[in-house]
Amino acid sequence: MNQKAKRIIYNLKARI
């Protein structure tokens, strides 16, 4: 997985 995608997913998870 791309580092950027990982960060986006992490952000989305943290947002919930």
List the helices and strands and how they pair.
Elements (H helix, E strand, L loop, with lengths): L2 H13 L1
How would you explain this protein's 3D organization?
This protein has 16 residues and is mainly alpha-helical. The protein contains one helix and no strands. The chain has one helix spanning 3-15. The longest helix is centred in the middle third of the chain and has 13 residues, at 3-15. The N and C termini lie far apart (21 Å). The mean pLDDT is 92.
Radius of gyration, in angstroms, nearest whole number = 7 Å
* Number of β-strand runs: 0
Helical content class: over 70%
What's the story with the biggest beta sheet?
Answer: none
The SSE string, one letter per element, is H
Kindly report how far apart the N and C termini lie: 21 Å
What would the principal axes of the Cα set say about the shape?
A: elongated
What is the average of the pLDDT values? 92
Count of helix runs: 1
Structural class: mainly alpha
Poorly predicted sequence stretches spanning 5 or more consecutive residues: none
Strand fraction band? Answer: under 5%
